[in-house]
């Protein structure tokens, strides 16, 4: 599960899973649970309970200023780059793979509505779907799915485009490859996939030397995107696809646009 930009949690701010919390965030009553996975993947509960899984984590991180801080002031720039890579308007069906802190989904839905399109958002965690449902109370043109990104319940070629926004660095290699296979499968031939995630910064960027130890401590799978070119991580099904890549903030972030 991109899910969303990850960062440094305040020490002691969140209790480990299993302790009772007040004001729990509940699952939204209106979402597709036909393929609901249970329980969540172990790597999520083990490594990301502090950022995504625990209800208090959601209350802490659902602040756009905090997301922007984690991304070194680049959230809006990266959000808009991903949106523009998908298109100014989004007719047909668009898929967002994993919920995102901040207002990305609202902007996606607005672009879909301009063209009478639809937006589907899939996430493996009900708490994340509940959070998104609160942010987008008007569900017109929106469908939420409780499902694993590595086992999407959608039919082949069901979507015109798909977005993975800061998701891949949070997944173990085998889950990442399966997520990419699934995204490829559900986008129609001629459709578009947009990936935005970390990359290895340029040699002159101080974060090349300072940020990786932080990521390695908090996000054990992120180093893959520093030590390997993302194209080397793509599954065989993507061979021959037309790729376009852009880098941001001294190479720390990369946007990959793939024509199916």
Automatic annotation (TrEMBL):
<dbReference type="InterPro" id="IPR041698">
    <property type="entry name" value="Methyltransf_25"/>
</dbReference>
<keyword id="KW-0808">Transferase</keyword>
<feature type="domain" description="Methyltransferase">
    <location>
        <begin position="95"/>
        <end position="191"/>
    </location>
</feature>
<dbReference type="Pfam" id="PF13649">
    <property type="entry name" value="Methyltransf_25"/>
</dbReference>
<dbReference type="InterPro" id="IPR029063">
    <property type="entry name" value="SAM-dependent_MTases_sf"/>
</dbReference>
<protein>
    <submittedName>
        <fullName>Demethylmenaquinone methyltransferase</fullName>
        <ecNumber>2.1.1.163</ecNumber>
    </submittedName>
</protein>
<dbReference type="GO" id="GO:0043770">
    <property type="term" value="F:demethylmenaquinone methyltransferase activity"/>
</dbReference>
<dbReference type="GO" id="GO:0032259">
    <property type="term" value="P:methylation"/>
</dbReference>
<feature type="region of interest" description="Disordered">
    <location>
        <begin position="1"/>
        <end position="37"/>
    </location>
</feature>
<keyword id="KW-0489">Methyltransferase</keyword>
